[in-house]
C-alpha cells in the first residue's frame, strides 16, 4: 500500500507498525534526537509537536508559514542551524487544511540537501500524514520520498478508515536513507522501550483487511463547502482548505473573545493562539451536514456580536 | 474489578486505561520524574525497567534481592537517598517467579514512610503486576494499596486474558495519594503526549466484557511442576516460583555457556546476566505440557554436558 501511494518500492522491514501517528512521531524523535537537537516545524502548528520533541530532550523551533499557510522557504533557511536534526511537516495540515505542492516540497528538499552538506550532517525530513487520503478537488499529496532520501513518513489509519481510537499506524522510511539499518534498529528499540511494544494485534488484522478501502472524500468536501459558505456570509477571511477536516479562518476580534461568543452560541472552536497564531480559530468539519446547517444562524449571530465589538 | 481485587474503593477517575503495562510504567515515570531522580528496583530485574526510567531522565538503581529472591529490606534502606523518587516492585516477579508476602510489603511501606518523613518528600511505591492473577498453591498477591497511600499499580490484561499483543492495561492510583488531582492530570497528559493518546478502543470493549474471567491457573501450575521435576533431575538449584510463568534456576557453569548448550539442544533460555544476576537462566513455562515433556531428555543432556565442564 505504501509502495503504491508513494510510487516507490518499500519493503516490509522499512515499515514499522506503531500505536498511531503520535506513537510514530515519538519513536522517530526518540531514535533521532540527542539532547538539545532542534526540530523545525511551520507555524501555525499542531501544539502537541512541542511535547513530542521535548519528550526526547529536543528543542522545538516553530517557523512562520506564509500568509496562505504555504511553506515559507526563507523562514526555514533562517531557522536551520548546526543544531537542526529534523524538519517536521504536516500535509494536509492541522489546523489550516493547507496542502504543500510538489514545488514547495522539492524546494524544501533542495534546501535540506544544501544545509546538510554545508553543516556536514544529515538533516532529516519527517512528514506527518494522518490526513493523506483526505484531500479535495482531485488534488494529490506529493510524496516526500520522491524528493529526499533522508525522510520518514508517519501515518495513522484512524482518519482514513474511521478507526478513531484504535491506535494503529506506522513509520515508513526511505529505502535509500543513510545508515538505514541502524535507524531501523533504533526505531524498533524506541517502540519497545517507550512502552508501545507493538501496534495492537487486532487492529493490525483489521487494517490488513481493509487498507485499500477509501474514505468517502466527497462527504468531507461537501461539509467543507457548506462551512466555507457560512464563513463567507459571516464576513470572515479564510484560506479554503485543500485537505484534512480543519480550517483556520481569521477572527474579526481577539480569538479568545471570539471563541467565547461562539461558545455562547453552543459552537466549539479552538483559539488560534494554541496553534501559534492569534486572531484565528480552528474549526473542524468532521460533523454531519445537518449539524453544520443548524449551526449557521448561531455562527452568524456570533459574527454580528463580534462586529459590534470592533 | 480493581476495587474488588484490591479490596479498596477506587473510582473511575483513579484509573487510567493505557496501552499495556509498559505504557503504564512509562506514563508514571514521565509524570513523576525530574531529571536525575532515582528509581530503585530489586535485582534480578526485568531489564526494560532501565529503559523506562532512563526514557524520562531518571536514574535506575538496582538493589539486590535476598538469595531466595524475597525483598532485601536492608539493601533498600541503603539504596534510598534524598534523590529517590520511587521504588518499583514486580510481584509475581519476572524473571524469578517470586511473590512478595504481606510482611515484606508492609515492612517496605514502613521504610518508605520513614524515609519520606526523614527527607521531607514523597517517595512513591509503584507495583508492576501483569502476573497478579497467575499465582499458584492458593496464594494471593497482597495489595500495596493496603499498606501505602502514595502508591500506583500498573496492570496489563494481556497475560490474564491471553490477549498477547493487544496493548491493553491501566494505571490505578491510591485514592488517598497526596496531590492526587495534580498527579492524575500529569498522567493523562503524559499518556497523551508520549503518543499513546488512548488505550485501543476495541480492546477496551473486549476487556469490559471479560474482565472477570479467570486465567486457567491450574494449567500453569502443572507446567511449573513438570519443569521443576526436570530441573531437579538435572541437578539444578532453584526457587520454586509462586507466580508468573517464569523461573530462574542457578546454572552449574557460566550462564552464557549453559545457554549455548541448551541452544544446541534446541531449548531457548535467557542468560541471567541480562537480569542483573549471572550464573542463572530464565526459563518460561508458558508452553504446552507435551513440549515440556519432549524437551526433558534434551535438557538433561545439556546438564550432563555442563557437568563435564565444571
Automatic annotation (TrEMBL), chains A, B:
<keyword id="KW-0032">Aminotransferase</keyword>
<dbReference type="GO" id="GO:0008483">
    <property type="term" value="F:transaminase activity"/>
</dbReference>
<comment type="similarity">
    <text>Belongs to the class-I pyridoxal-phosphate-dependent aminotransferase family.</text>
</comment>
<protein>
    <recommendedName>
        <fullName>Aminotransferase</fullName>
        <ecNumber>2.6.1.-</ecNumber>
    </recommendedName>
</protein>
<dbReference type="InterPro" id="IPR015422">
    <property type="entry name" value="PyrdxlP-dep_Trfase_small"/>
</dbReference>
<dbReference type="GO" id="GO:0030170">
    <property type="term" value="F:pyridoxal phosphate binding"/>
</dbReference>
<dbReference type="InterPro" id="IPR015424">
    <property type="entry name" value="PyrdxlP-dep_Trfase"/>
</dbReference>
<dbReference type="InterPro" id="IPR015421">
    <property type="entry name" value="PyrdxlP-dep_Trfase_major"/>
</dbReference>
<dbReference type="Pfam" id="PF00155">
    <property type="entry name" value="Aminotran_1_2"/>
</dbReference>
<keyword id="KW-0808">Transferase</keyword>
<dbReference type="InterPro" id="IPR004838">
    <property type="entry name" value="NHTrfase_class1_PyrdxlP-BS"/>
</dbReference>
<dbReference type="InterPro" id="IPR004839">
    <property type="entry name" value="Aminotransferase_I/II_large"/>
</dbReference>
<feature type="domain" description="Aminotransferase class I/classII large">
    <location>
        <begin position="4"/>
        <end position="294"/>
    </location>
</feature>
